[in-house]
Amino acid sequence: MLRGRGALNANPLAAAGQRGLCSNSLAPVSGERARERGRNLKVLIPTPLRSYTSAREVDAHGTTIAELLADLERRYPGIRFRMIDEQDKMRAHMRFFVNGKQVFDMGRPLVPSDSIQIVQALSGG
User: Fold this and answer.
1) pTM here?
2) Which of 2, 8, 56, 102 is 20 to 30 A from 76 (CA-CA)?
3) Calpha distance 26→13 (Å, rounded)
């Protein structure tokens, strides 16, 4: 490995990130996609899932509920499986609300001003 001011960057992905390119490929990120990636949505986490996040509210990225959950999984491994089953369906005891209205479609589009709440029903006796 070369050292010093004239050395080439040994990590081409790090160099690509410095040039404003997508870190997982060397393709440039389009303006719209770059804005979407920077979109922070506030997500209210139910108490039973806070062992994953250590927080009542977290930031996540996504243009749909599915993308938002994928981002939560990336940040908090294992959390998605607690909400989504093996058939990629919302678990029966989980409820997703966007701006106070229950959502049943994982493809539901999200905008930056949306408020997302995840609610977990409690059962037992």
Assistant:
1) 0.67
2) 102
3) 7
Q: What is the pLDDT of residue 122?
A: 79
Interval 60-96: pLDDT, tens: 999 999 999 999 999 999 999 999 999 999 999 999 9
For residue 9, what are its two tokens?
Answer: 């960057």
- At 52, which amino acid appears? Y
Q: Which amino acid is at 5?
A: R
When pLDDT is averaged across residues 2-8 and rounded to a whole number, the result is: 46
Query: Are 44 and 57 contacting, i.e. CB atoms less than 8 angstroms apart?
Result: yes
Question: Domains of the chain, with CATH numbers?
Answer: 40-120 (3.10.20.30)
